[in-house]
Amino acid sequence: MREINLNHKKRNAITAVMALCCLSHPSPLSAQKNQQNAIAGGLSSTETRADSLLVSQLRRKGVRFSHNNSVTLLTTGQEKFDDLFKAIDQARSSIHLEYFNFRNDSINEELIRRLAAKAKEGIEVRAVFDGFGNASNNRPMRKRRLKAIRKQGIEIHEFKPMAFPWLHDIFNRDHRKIIVIDGKVAYTGGMNVADYYIKGTKAVGSWHDMHCRIEGDEVNTLQKIFLRMWRIVSGQDVHGAKYYRGVSDADYMAGLKPDTCRSAGKKMVGIINREPHVTKDIIRCFYLNAIKDAKDSIKLINPYFSLSHSLKKALRDAVSRGVKVEILLSMKSDIPLTPDCGFYNAHQLMKAGCTIWIYKPGFHHTKIITIDGQLCTVGSANLNARSLRWDREENAVIVDACTTHELNQLFEDQKKDSFKLTEAKWKQWRTPWQRFRGWFAHLLSPFL
């Protein structure tokens, strides 16, 4: 009996030592569980990671995250449209498209041809475009073109058509880019429907932008956003289980670019959707908190870098606490004045310690940010007043180290075609007049 008691004491001692070792050196599995617990409940520890903090903050804002997603990055116009067209050709039930604009060009023609073929098969095809987006591009779809599209069985509606006196129609536009196929596969990102994403333009040269394809429960979130907009533009209340991802996936779709991450099918994704009067500050809060929560690195690409005072302060504060902040902007742009404001802001941030890269070959319309190698976003929102204060926007927030690494690698690749901004380079590159124009433009940033 004494021997049994001694053995019992020895076992207790060994168990205690093992427990202490586990606390000091947690296994990868327990570390992953701790991270999930931090994200689920929000930890008060100063060591809480930026992704955990940000997810908790977004959840308090009503953003829902799911853990069963795949995310495939489509980093060129060719990749995006090739992948999208393959998915459209294999659709079995419904195809929903929401874009800022469908430019009336060769890609539009090819898209409509494929959509018309699916409509002829009995597939439901619905499309929404923004009136201001259509009117402001250099090849808008006219009434005759829209009539021809509808005759082919495609339901297409315009959100807020431009009407005299126009001024009130400039605000609260639909700038989102969402495609949902069969309620099982979704695309989102920064590209509209235009052939210059593949061919470029004479004015700026090559156009760079990206989309991502999502499979998993966040497809349902994107479908809900589309169907709410569809109700607004058409008056139709489209609903039912057939429009949402249920027990089955889109395994019947072949030839799409795969998600090669080991985390494919297990990625944590949430959709931040800005709607006026409903979630008006959600994207602004995301960017601000992402920058404030960063502990190691920030990489940012955005085409319209007019920034608010709070975002500029957050970036300066990040540098002051030791975060490596890298920002990539395009030398060329598709609009006037706004780039001058962006260059002025870049110069100010450079003096505060940010590393600024100026991309030379063409126009970067990409809108991404990565935080600490753990979290990233792909979507439609620019860092200007239009996106953060007025327009309908939508971004996918991806909490996944592999996808974030892929975007970081994209950033590193683009640096090869960029120059690093220095004070000497600033004075060499920007004339006194251009520098003055940038200073003047930054005074107008709340309206750009």
From TrEMBL:
Pfam families: PLDc_2. It is an enzyme of class 3 (hydrolase). SMART domains: PLDc. The keyword Endoplasmic reticulum does not apply. One of its GO terms (biological process) is cardiolipin biosynthetic process. One of its GO terms (molecular function) is phosphatidyltransferase activity. The keyword Translocase does not apply. It comes from Prevotella multiformis DSM 16608. Residues 170-197, 360-387 form the PLD phosphodiesterase domain. Keywords: Hydrolase, Signal. Residues 1-31 form the signal peptide. Its EC number is 3.1.-.-. InterPro entries: PLD-like_dom, PLipase_D/transphosphatidylase. This is Phospholipase D domain protein.
